[in-house]
UniProtKB/TrEMBL annotation:
This is ABC transporter domain-containing protein. The keyword Protein transport does not apply. Residues 18-56 form the ABC transporter domain. It comes from Candidatus Falkowbacteria bacterium CG_4_10_14_0_2_um_filter_41_15. Transmembrane segments: none annotated. InterPro entries: ABC_transporter-like_ATP-bd (IPR003439), ABC_transporter_ATP-binding (IPR050763), P-loop_NTPase (IPR027417). Keywords: ATP-binding, Nucleotide-binding, Transport. It comes from the Bacteria. Coiled coil: none annotated. The keyword Disulfide bond does not apply. GO terms for molecular function: ATP binding; ATP hydrolysis activity. Belongs to the ABC transporter superfamily.
Length: 57
């Protein structure tokens, strides 16, 4: 497993941007994030790249 995320949550004060997501990406696989505006895609990527810290993991 190259990336494994379990129970990731990110809050900005009272606003929940990412709520309890989990996923894993195996070596050689490609993952795409799809969703509406405000769904938490960019926030999740920023957490994975350590630009933001998660509220809980």
């Amino acid at each position: 497993m190259i990336i494994s995320v379990k129970n990731l949550t990110k809050k900005f004060k009272q606003f929940v941007a990412v709520n309890d997501i989990s996923f894993a990406v195996a070596a050689g696989k490609i993952l795409a994030f799809l969703g509406l505006n405000g769904a938490g895609k960019t926030t999740t990527i920023k957490i994975l790249t350590t630009v933001l810290k998660p509220t809980s993991v």
